[in-house]
Structures are given as C-alpha cells and as structure tokens.
Amino acid sequence: MANENSIGVVEEAYNNFKRGDVGALLAQMDASIEWHVPDVPSARFGGRRQGQERVREFFTILGTDQDVVTFEPRQFFAQGDTVVALGNYEWRVKATGKSFRSDFAHVFTVRDGKVTRFQEYTDSAAASEAYRK
Length: 133
Known about the structure:
Nuclear Transport Factor 2, Chain: A; six-stranded mixed β-sheet
C-alpha cells in the first residue's frame, strides 16, 4: 500500500507539471526538498538545489529556456520510500531552436506523502548539443 501511495504522489506531480501548475507541484514537496539535475554546459537549469524556492527557480528557468515537445513518464517502480520513473522526453531550446530527445530515469524519495528528494538521469550530451550555438 505504501508503494502504491508513493507512486500516486509521483504521478500527481507529473500531472501538475504537465498542466503547468508549479504551485500545486511545489505543494507536494517537502519544504527542504533536495533537487538534483545534471549540469549541462550553457544551460542554467542544472545542478543541486535545496528548498521549495530554489526548485521554483528551476521550473522558472526551465520554462524560460526550453519548450516541452513531448514528456512521457511510462513506468513506475517503488520500493520503500523510493520511486523510480522511466520515460522519455523531447525539449526545444529557445535560444538555439534545436531540440533534443532522451530517455530519463527520475528517482524520487517520498516520505509522509511529500517528495523530499529528486534526482534526474538523462542524456546530458544531447542536451549540451542542443544548447550549443
């Protein structure tokens, strides 16, 4: 039951993201959330952030710098307080007009119904190429 609840929290987070409802997405996060995204040369969104305001900043930068072409989380696996989501996406970099596609693995820690940690694994080389002018 705990695994199903944790997967539900993550699915709801993705739904909030797809709707563009960053406020609802942030409400699902612990106040001291740890957020880890790979560094990509020339991109501003990468790195480690802590706390809801820093994660809000991530989503602001992401929306300013990229457009979602497709975003498809496809499989979810849970064990204990960890949820892994596998999927793929395509983004268009606004500054260059280039797109990149990648499979992704997103690893969430969910405690007491809140996301406390997020880690993304993706093809950062493809993203880097799309940011290259």
